[in-house]
Amino acid sequence: MRLGEETEARAALEKAFQVDMGNVRVKNSLEVLDVLATYETLETEHFLIRFDPRHDKLLARYMAQYLEEVYPQLCDWMGYEPPGKSLFEVFHRAKNTSGHGWFSARMVGLPHIHTIGACAGKMVALVSPNDMDKQFNWARVVKHELVHVINLQQTNFQIPHWFTEALAVYDEGYPRPPNWDQMLVRRVPAGKMFDLQTINLGFIRPSTSEDWQMAYCQAELYAEYMVARFGPQALARLLDAYADNLDTPTAIPRALGVSMEEFERGYAAHLTQLVAQLTTTASAPPQPFQELTQAVEDDPRNPDLLAALADAYLRRKAYPQAGKLAGQALEIQPRHQAATYVRARLQLLVGDQEGVVPMLEKALDPAAPHAPLLRLLAGLKYKAEAYERAVELYQLGRERFPRDPGWTKLLARVHLKTDDHQRLRPLLAELARHDGGQPGRSPKTGSAGPGRPGFSGRSALGPRGPPDRGAGCGHASRAGRVAGRTGEVPDSD
Ligand SMILES: [Zn+2]
Question: Which domains does the chain carry?
Answer without folding.
Answer: 6-154 (3.40.30), 176-281 (no CATH), 284-368 (1.25.40.10)
